[in-house]
Write a structure and sequence with these properties.
Blueprint: H1 2-31, H2 36-42, H3 68-77, H4 82-94, H5 98-111, H6 115-127, H7 131-144, H8 149-161, H9 165-172
Helix pairs in contact: 1-2, 3-4, 4-5, 4-6, 5-6, 6-7, 7-8, 8-9
Length: about 200
């Protein structure tokens, strides 16, 4: 009798839990939530652990990149020179200082919100650990200039990492003729390896 009573209580609870996981997965898919909890729901599993434990402070190189000083002098005279802003942002990303890159590229956003500026700002933001904002920036970049490959690759890499396989594959279909190297400052880690992969 006790066993029967427990089973009668457990069955609706199990059904509720299953429905909650479905709702969690649907909401995550709709909003493209980038978290381990959302990924667990997409996999049909209950989220576990403390989501704050994975937060890491990025290591930053304080050294000025080679060739940055002349560009900084140029920008002191011509602060709205967008090609120089992009180049300097790439230098700081390559040199391991996403904080400085983010500051420089934020100035680029004031000049013009182009796909390359949005993409590089997304890379800096991702390297600083804010993946959700980075995804938004990559998404904006793809809408500004659909044929520009790096934000599509970056978006696909983030989506794939957090369990959105179908969405990542759809994003890769929009990439044409890209064969970047893994050290490309326009890309987040892992994005270069997706270029030329299965479509």
């Amino acid at each position: 009798q006790v066993k029967g009573a427990l089973e009668s209580i457990a069955a609706p609870l199990a059904a509720e839990a299953k429905e909650a996981l479905k709702q969690c997965a649907a909401t995550a898919r709709k909003l493209k939530v980038l978290s381990e909890a959302a990924r667990a729901c997409l996999d049909g599993k209950a989220p576990t652990g403390d989501p704050q434990t994975t937060i890491k402070v990025p290591e930053v190189s304080r050294q000025k990149p080679s060739g940055a000083a002349p560009l900084e002098r140029l920008l002191a005279k011509k602060p709205r020179d967008l090609p120089s802003i992009l180049k300097l942002g790439e230098m700081y990303l390559s040199g391991g200082n996403p904080y400085m890159a983010q500051l420089i590229l934020a100035k680029g956003m004031e000049v013009s919100e182009t796909a390359p500026v949005l993409n590089l700002l997304g890379v800096a933001t991702a390297r600083l650990g804010d993946l959700q904002d980075a995804l938004d920036l990559f998404d904006k970049a793809t809408k500004k200039e659909g044929g520009y490959g790096p934000p599509h690759l970056n978006k696909a890499a983030l989506l794939q990492r957090f369990g959105y396989a179908t969405e990542a594959k759809a994003e890769l279909k929009r990439v044409k003729g890209e064969s970047p190297s893994e050290g490309d400052p326009r890309l987040i880690p892992g994005a270069a390896g997706l270029a030329g992969g299965p479509r």
